[in-house]
Amino acid sequence: MQSSNKSELRKQILKQRLSLTQESWREKSDRICHFLQSFPLFIEAKTILSYFSFRQEPDLSSLFSSNHRWGFSRCVDKSLVWHVWNVGEPLQTGNFGIQEPLPTAPILNADDVDLILVPAVACDYQGYRLGYGGGFYDRLLNLPEWSHIPTIGIIFELARLPQLPVDSWDKKLQATCTETNIFIH
After folding, report:
1. How far apart, in whole angstroms, are the C-alpha atoms of residue 16 and residue 121?
2. Is 150 exposed, middle or buried (0-12, 13-18, 19+ CB in 10 A)?
3. DSSP code of 46?
4. What is the pLDDT of residues 126-150, one digit of tens each?
5. Domain tally for the chain?
6. Residues 55-71 pLDDT 10s
7. What is the extent of the structural domain holding 33?
8. Using an 8 Å Cβ cutoff, are 9 and 158 in contact?
9. Spatial CA neighbour of 9 closest among 172, 174, 123
10. Is the pLDDT of residue 1 over 60?
11. Could you tell me if 158 and 36 are in contact, meaning their C-beta atoms sit under 8 angstroms apart?
């Protein structure tokens, strides 16, 4: 029952997100970046894991040249493998149509990471996240070596909901950032 609720909710929110005008999407993305840049957890982090915007997710690319080391994932089988990436380095298109670092880029391990900016379809007021259904982040965040790293869900306000259906493997995020604020959970 839960997964069908999640599936319907996912379709509905993705449709809303894709209906944003290019101008509105850009403006909301810029405001999210503004909130992140003034957030102590972000400021103090040396190495941050992020994502390349796909299907009109909030675009964080204006942050990528800041004074942090950035990590981006490649989907390998059912796992995320994290690599160091710098602005201007080559990318490739992965299995899901998402830009990824090259497999030859240096690998990042959990010990190297200070903060994870987590893409999501939606987040709720308690800090639970609705992902895309592949389970990549659920598996990652449930691994002991990754479970202690602070996480911030990145969504537009239209995708911040009072409550989401929650499964046993769902982990709360420490915070959610939208274009209106950063919400600590």
Report:
1. 10
2. middle
3. S
4. 999 999 988 999 999 999 999 999 9
5. 1
6. 999 999 999 986 899 99
7. 2-184
8. no
9. 123
10. no
11. no
